[in-house]
Amino acid sequence: MRSTRRNAQASPAVALRRSMTATVAMLAVLALLTCTWVVATAQRAVALDPFTGYLMAHFTGESTSGEQIYLAHSTDGLNWSDLNNGAPVVVSTVGTRGVRDPAIVRSPQGDRYWIIATDLRIASGTSWSDAANRGSTSLVVWESTNLVDWSEPRLVNVAGGIPSAGNAWAPEAIYDPATGDYVVYWATNAPRDGVTKHRIYYSRTRDFRTFTTAQLYIDRPSSTQGIIDTQIVESPTSVGGYRYYRASADGHITIEGSNSILGTWTTIGNLSHMGISNGTGGGNVVEGPMWMPFNNGTSWALWLDQYATGRGYMPIRSTNLGSTQNFQTVSSYNLGGTRKRHGSILQVTTAERNRVLGRWASTAVSRVQSYNFQDRYLRHANYDVRIDPAVSPAQDGQWRIVPGLAGSGTVSFQSVNHPDHYLRHWDLDLTLARYDGTSTFRSDASFRAVPGLASSSWTSYQSYNFPDRYLRHYGYVLRLDTITDANGRADATFRAVS
């Protein structure tokens, strides 16, 4: 007992030390909170930078390379320029090795991005019936910290737990500030209450790696009417009475409003008065509704894919989403050189826009001239690569020298008439090959442009992954080689000309 009383009645010196310790601890906590607030504020500031452009992720159709990820850029939201010279930006190497319906997602802090897409490749010969009933139940996911350097693709089996699920199509994602995570939603064809049709399911995630069990999100009361394409847009100022609006292809293009993503949704109307439907109402039959807030903060575009006529996307515009009567057609727009199929549009800041354009803006067409045979130019012929005079057809000898697929200050040679093909080495031979999305391809197709080995006013191209070897011709055929003499230096020297 005496020992307990001594501990309870500490000396003044001990009490002072305890007080000082508590003060130091409190100051440390305050410092930590201040640091956390500063970091969080800095992160929020990134997201709050003014939006000055738009980035569209899309696919182009059922061609050999059409079911991959393409990007386009716009400054006004209506007139678009294809990026990467109209070639895919990232390519799926997993699942079906094809992707459709990409959604591009930004974190609230603006420090991370994801692309999620349908794992489906109709161009491989898959029928729509097989794709819907016996297709992939996974989504394909890419991740980036800067919008230009993307991870390898990965599969996430979001619908695998849905009984007898046939597929997972048209994924979308939106950040939910109420819970601090993302709601990912997609369409799955599966039996429920004795009826098999497409319904919208959802899952939650914080990192696009771990997902909660799929739950039913939207089911139309009709026993036959399915729903596939749904996309949500946020109206932070609740113009029209709701914070969130969604458009769904369910026979019509149905517009709904809600104040919470997973709460109760109110039907606002459809577009039948504009002669637009998803089939049930006839008229202009469309799909793939794609929202785009204009950067003016006062209006929205809803892009609709006129798939029935093959005319591609058309925009309609509204300044008040609370009534479908507020939508108006837009007559002046330009979608660029490639067909845009179901995707999504991200508003981008100046910093984001500059990064994207710095990597993928269209580049000039060049010919590549040999130093020691100046009447000969680099060309592809039957996917082999050589130097020839009087190249015919001329586009076989035309290239775009673009930022290297491997990054790190490299360049790659993109074919003009086969824009999804690049010059790459294979067993030290040079060939023209379709980009397959792998890191090996990126390395094989990337070179460092250095002062010419035979003349510093020309250029030599050093292999990225075999830096002791250079691009050279030998017997007029291109290969990678070590350079040891004057002939080799001349063979390995080139220049780009218009």
Automatic annotation (TrEMBL):
Domain of life: Bacteria
Transmembrane segments: none
UniProt-listed Pfam families: AbfB
InterPro entries: AbfB_ABD, AbfB_ABD_sf, GH43_arabinanases, Glyco_hydro_beta-prop_sf
Keywords: Hydrolase
GO molecular function: hydrolase activity
Domain (Alpha-L-arabinofuranosidase B arabinose-binding): residue spans on this chain: 367-495
Gene3D superfamilies: 2.80.10.50, Glycosyl hydrolase domain, family 43 (2.115.10.20)
Family annotation (PANTHER family): ARABINAN ENDO-1,5-ALPHA-L-ARABINOSIDASE (PTHR43301), ARABINAN ENDO-1,5-ALPHA-L-ARABINOSIDASE A-RELATED (PTHR43301:SF3)
Name the record gives this protein: Glycoside hydrolase family 43 protein
Protein source organism: Promicromonospora alba
